[in-house]
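Listing S7. Sequence submitted for prediction.
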Amino acid sequence: MENNYYQIGLRLYSQTNYLSALLNFTKAAEQNHVFAQFYLGRMYKHGQGTLRDTLVSLQWYLKAAYQGDTDAQYNAALLYFNGTESVEKDELLAIHWFQKAAQSHHACAQNYMGIVYESGFSVKQDYKVAMDWYIKSADGGSEHAEYNIGHLNLEGLGVDINYDLALAWFTKAAERNHACAQYKMGTMYEHGLGIKKDEKQATVWYKVAAINGDPDASYAIGLIYYYGRYHVDKDYKQAFTWFQKSLNNSDALNYIGNMYTNGLGVDLDYMLALQSYMEAAKEDNMYAQYNIGRMYRDGIGVDKNYAEAIGWFAKSAESGYIGAFAKIAHLFETGEYGIEKSYLQAEQWYMKAIQVGSNDVYYQLAELYYSGGYGIDLNYVTALFWFRKAAGAGDAHAQNRVGLLYDKCLDGKIKNYTEAMKWYKRAAKNGVAIAQYNVGVLYEKGLGVPKDEKEAIIWYMQSIESGYTYAYFGLGSIYHYSSNLVDYEKALSMYKQSIENDGQLSGSALHGIGLLYQQGFGVIQSNDNSMRYYLLAADKKSDIAFNSIGDMYKNGYGVEQSNTDAFKWYLRSAEAGNKDGQLNLGIMYFQGMGTEKDHNIAYFWFKRSLYNGNKRALAYVDQVDGEDKTKEERDLKTMKLAEAANAVKATEENIALLMAELELIESPITQENSKKKPIENFKMEKRVK
């Protein structure tokens, strides 16, 4: 009678009369009919004729499995392998039953044994053993195994990368309507792997795979329409439709968010954008996490919340988006969006970006040490190290920055004109206009190379052609001061060109014209015109103009003589780092002109001027030193000198102002994309279980 119960149940099952089939299978199964037990396992698993109950399903599968039914062994293994609401996941038991079925030549179980060894589920990962199982499964007719063999060959897992074999196995599976293999066929054609690149054929395979339910293929088609690739017109509505068919693909969800954010193919809707980003973020999609951060930062569809924005940027960084590390660092560096400025925090985030493989932030990290402050000590040596790293990574502006440190740095351990010229020339050959100018300066002054004003002119002209019009001042300087190329009319013309083009940077050229008027070179001598140009240069923060105005007041040229006014202008020049202004200020203190006589403060400024390269200051330093006749006087002067240094804060101001001066010469280029588009990954990791 048991066989009759089973046969009746089988007939009723085929007629989808599940309730009656269940009753007959139960009677047969209670009489230990193995196939009836298997069918009961299936019906309880899928809720056919009864409520879904995976625990009862497992119990019936196990009864059949212990009797040697390979399908039951395989299905019991699946329940253990994946786990359910009522069956606890147990990889060891899953492997036990997969192996039982596989040893009896169950092709699907053999495929899963391959997956177990490929992924290292509760066993030592072994691609070769995985390949052996996949081959057995493929021999048994599994298209999933055919796909997986293709995958191992494509990725070179346990075997050498072999695109030809990968293509052959993907083709076998694809012809049997394996959607994932069809998607892989699309990628092989798109990228020309193992076959001639054929974007049209790739599109065909993607569409076939998408129709058969592969979400990654739907995403790929969405990208084709989104960007208008492969002779397909850009169509945001079509792109949106295909992205929607790939909703379990977090990259597609991120694109949908972008489309709602920007109104591409759909009505602009920030709430739906945020929902899409949030769904993608649940899958740790780093681009979606970053985009959520942007929404909170900018108040797009949500109230502005900078702390929340930082939190999402941090999640994006933790998920692997290097750009998020750099964004957080930049926020701390600039103090934007209400974030408290902290170079220390910026340093930590730039370092994290470097640790995960970014070489794009070397320059920014170097800038922190170059500028100092906000929790970071100014350190030219460390700045040089990171600028050189950036330069080695091909950053031409960093190459110029390395040259600038060797050229102008206050740290005597670094200053090296020969090295400066070498790095300037590297940057110059890479098209950096400011570097071309800097090469010209060194040739003009004979620093690190023999003096060659003709060569300097060539470099200045090249810099101008590259767009750096401040080099007109360099040309003017040569024609103004050269011993054998002097041409005051040309000097005046070049200075005027600089003024017309350089805005805030034109102070040096304005001063140059003022000096021509004071000297009467190329123009009619006029102290009034000289003073007028000096004052215009002073408005541009020209430290040398500050000093020249001091000279005019001290000597009564074009103005009423005034030591008090001379002192004020020399002080501005000295504090701005001008070595002549520092010397003149020291003289005013030394002689008590325009201020009270104070040899200690005078000595301080003489030393600063000498330190900055003004050899004329040495005589004044020696003169003050010669007045110290006793140890007590020397000790007292040392103490007062320290007090003077604290009073004027000259050391710190000179460093800070030097940095400002260098920033006027060269402003770093920062590229900050307001819209970070997701990276399109060539996916090779897809698995089928």
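Caption to Listing S7: primary sequence and predicted structure tokens for the chain studied. The CA atoms of residues 253 and 617 lie 69 Å apart. Residues 395-461 form a domain with the Serine Threonine Protein Phosphatase 5, Tetratricopeptide repeat fold (CATH 1.25.40).
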